[in-house]
Each structure stands twice: as C-alpha cells, then as structure tokens.
Amino acid sequence: MTNNRSCRGVVRPRPLAVIAAGGTGGHVFPAVCLANSFSDDGVNVIFFTDARGARYTTGLSCHIVRQNIATTPRWAMYISLIFNALARIWTLRRLKPDVVVGFGGYPSVPCALAAQALRIKTIIHEQNAVIGLANKLLSKMATKILTSFPQTIGIRDSPKVIRVGNPTRFENRYGAVGKPSNRVFTILIFGGSQGSMVFAKVIPPVVRELAKSFPIKVFHQCQVEAIEDLRQTYSTHGISHLVSGFFDNIGELYEEADLVISRAGASSVSEIIGFQKPSILIPFKNSINGDQKANAEFLQTRNAAFVIDETDELGAKLKTLIESVASDKSKLTSIADALRSLRLADCTLNMKRIVTKEALGF
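The chain above was modelled as a monomer; its predicted structure follows.
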C-alpha cells in the first residue's frame, strides 16, 4: 500500500526515512551506508548534513539537504542549532517521515530534535566507544540506540540499546582478506582531518631511519599542503611511496599493507577490525569526550592493536615499535588473529533490519 507525500511539489511514496549526520567522515560514512542500502530497497531517503559532512557524500543516491550550521563560536553554534531545529519541525511536518535516524555530530541534532518534538520515531547510532554530546542529548527520547561497541561509555544497559556494529565503505571486501605477501614491509599511514599534519611531521624521519635497516614502502594520506614535501622527502631517501590527499583505492591499500598507522576515529578503528590489519593507533589527544582514546583502548586491552599517546617522544616510540614488529612478524599475526574475533559481520544489514522492524513496517 502506497501513501504519497509531497515535498516542494515532488510526490514521494512511503516509506520515507530521514537520515541526519555531519561534521566528520566518522559520522557520515555509516549514514551513507544505510542511506544507499535503503535506496537500493526502494525506500525513499532524504539525507540532512552540513557543508563539512557533504564532502563525504560522494556516490550517495538520495536527495541531500545541506544545513547551514555555525560551528564557532560556541554561542553561535547553539543559536544555529535552535534555529535549524525549528526549521526542521516545519520540514518534517510536511514530509511526515516514518523514521529519523541520527548518526551523531551537531548537524544530526536539528532533525532528531524536531522528530522527537513531533513524536516521530527516532533512532540514533553511536559509532564510538564513548557516547558523543549530540547523541547524549538525543538518547533519552530515542526509540532505539544502536551501538558499535559491546559496551559504550555513557549508555546504560536498556532494552532499547542494541549493538549492530559500525557500517563502513568496505564491508563487501572483509570476508576475503588474506595476509599480505610483501617482500617489502609496507605501511599505510593516515591521520584523518584531525592530526594528519602531525603525522606528516613526525613519521617521515622515522621511515627514513627504518629504511637504513630494511626495505620499506609507505602509502601516506595527508593534507594537500603537505603532499609535495612528503613526496620529496621519501624520494630523496629512496623510499618507495604513494602520497595523496585522498586515496580512492584505500581498500586495496589496506589489503596490501603489513601495518597501519592511524588516529583512532570510529571509522578507522572499524575498518582496521574489518580488514584485520595490525595497527599502531595514535589517538587525537584533543578529541571531544576522549572518544579516540576509548576506541584505541578497546583494541589495546584485547591485544588487537598497539597504542601510542601523542607526546614529545612519539617519533622515538614509533621507530622502536615498528622495528620490533618488522623483525618479528609473529606479533603482527597475533594481532590479526585477535582482530578476527572482534569483527561483527553485516553491520549495515544489522542496522537496516532494526530500523525496518521498528519504523518502516516491512
């Protein structure tokens, strides 16, 4: 049975899901996974984000609404969120969606708050091992709270809390991942939007010293302004390298790498688990609520990753650790085995089943 709605003159059949996420790729990537999966099933999806989040929506096959939300100063952000929430009440009254799914980040707040005010079913997903401020605000009135980790700091056990995992871009590649057979020790390096300049400064001297002892190859994702300096540094010292501001084929690079050096954002940690890649995690020390530290410690306490805090001794600690694992590959094998036991399969499907059962009625 079809119940049509109109939005700006466009007839929209039910069921209709509104998905809201923004700010960082860690919030947007799992939201995009769900949106595309629903679109493939014929569910109508409208995706709300902001200018920053829109950068990660390439390939999204549904209608995208970009919200103008100030992020600084803090008072301006609060006013902006209130203004957008009031505007979303009017929008959702017209659209009459069956469900609003929020993925955290401040851009998710207006839609989810408006839905709760209108008593529309609201489902939120927390990607990190500690609940973020946006989801904490929305959690009390949420219909369901979906989590990535077995226990999420700040979320009490409740029948409405369900672990579904964290959808990623590469779920269809995880099952067939084998161990790399590189003759050259290969490292995949990426720092994310928060900290890649630190990596660009600290890691090349470490790689240069390591290359004196054994062959090494690096895939280094960095900020655009650091690309040429990194390429020149690696070339000057005869180090095989691939440097870019963004790797379209990062799934292939994961598979080829012996070791990953990364921040500990939710998407990075989930991809590392999925690909079963030994990693050195360097949590961003200024992450809100210490979420990156909590994500990293989840793996560290299960012997599934090495963790180094960002300190003045970062370079020296990295060099010592990489030398150790490169000379004794059994350490990498042990970590890969530990990661295998942590992987939760079919995260997008798990999430879609919950949302469908709770709100879409098919």
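The chain has two domains: 5-165+345-360, 172-340.
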